Amino acid sequence: MKCLLWHDKHCNQDYEETLNITGAATQSSNYLGCTADKALNGLEDQGSDDAELCQACSVTNAANPWWALDLGGEHLIGRIQVIGRPDHMSQSSGLQVSMSISPSNNDVIVLSNNNEIGLNQQLNPPRLARYIKITSVSGTSNMVLCEVKLFESECNNGMYGYNCTGKCGHCKDVFPQCDRINGTCLQGCETGYATPPRCLQTCNNSFYGENCAQRCGNCLDGRRCDFKNGSCPRGCSSGYRGVYCNQTCPAGMYGNSCQRNCSGNCFNGLSCHFSTGICSYGCTAGFNYSIDTSCGTEYG
Ligand SMILES: [Ca+2]
């Protein structure tokens, strides 16, 4: 089960998943063969010489160093971890990280201090980002990043998107309700709501319930039924009964709430019409249909 980074009513444990980075990394300059991609190759051990260093780590060699990554698409980042070089602390400390959905990307959101090697920072709320940039304010020319790890997260349940400020539509109440990037309901619409992907509309008139698949009954005055449970809040139209107003009156009864008795004089013992009380096939002998279609009047 997927859970949140922090409190969520569906889960008790934290939720995050490792982002499998497929994007392209670049950096301001290269020290030997310590290119930008070395911070994404899964190797963290710096070894004891330059060859081993350049197997595992990216290293710059000029002032004002930076390392940048384009993920190729937007992701909701819940944590960033940078593995640095412990034997040359200033080369992997004072790191600034900016994350953005636009390439201009100068919005610093994480800053490590000069006593910290690399960094490991949870983002609360998670941050929607495509472009990641790491710079150093320690004054070094040789910025060393041995591995950069990103972890995807989910917003608080019911939220999505940039800084988790978007609100899911009327999605089914599961976790997560909607896609963390675009808000698409992941398990369909809440009962009584329609029009995926975001489920913002109630069912069309005359339909209700799960997937709006149920048809309303005959509610009083043609009102629509409750879009969630199908009940007719003001009762049924003449001749109908039940919570859903989809049953006609029992034999011998008719009218509003089925409270009126048929005349009992319909032809051949038939019941009158459930709505109007009319004897549709005429009257039994002795009653005058031409002046009273309900057959309540005897011939004079
Ligand atoms: Ca590496």
List key phrases describing it:
single chain; 300 residues; mainly beta; Jelly Rolls; 7-stranded antiparallel beta sheet; 1 helix; disordered N terminus; binds calcium ion
Give the SSE layout:
Blueprint (H helix, E strand, L loop, with lengths): L16 E2 L5 E4 L22 H7 L1 E2 L6 E18 L11 E6 L7 E4 L7 E18 L7 E2 L1 E6 L6 E2 L5 E2 L25 E2 L6 E2 L4 E2 L5 E2 L24 E2 L5 E2 L4 E2 L5 E2 L39
Antiparallel strand pairs: 1-9, 2-4, 3-8, 4-7, 4-9, 5-6, 5-7, 10-11, 12-13, 14-15, 16-17, 18-19
The protein binds calcium ion.
Output the structural class: mainly beta
Determine the number of helices (DSSP H or I, runs of at least 4 residues).
Answer: 1
* Ligand list: calcium ion
Helix content: under 10%
CATH superfamily of the domain at 17-152: Galactose-binding domain-like
Give the SSE order as H and E letters. EEHEEEEEEEEEEEEEEEEE
What is the CATH fold-level name of the domain at 17-152? Answer: Jelly Rolls
Overall CATH architecture of the domain at 17-152: Sandwich
Low-confidence stretches: 1-13
Strand content: 25-35%
Main sheet makeup: 7 strands, antiparallel
Radius of gyration (Å): 36 Å
Shape: rod-shaped
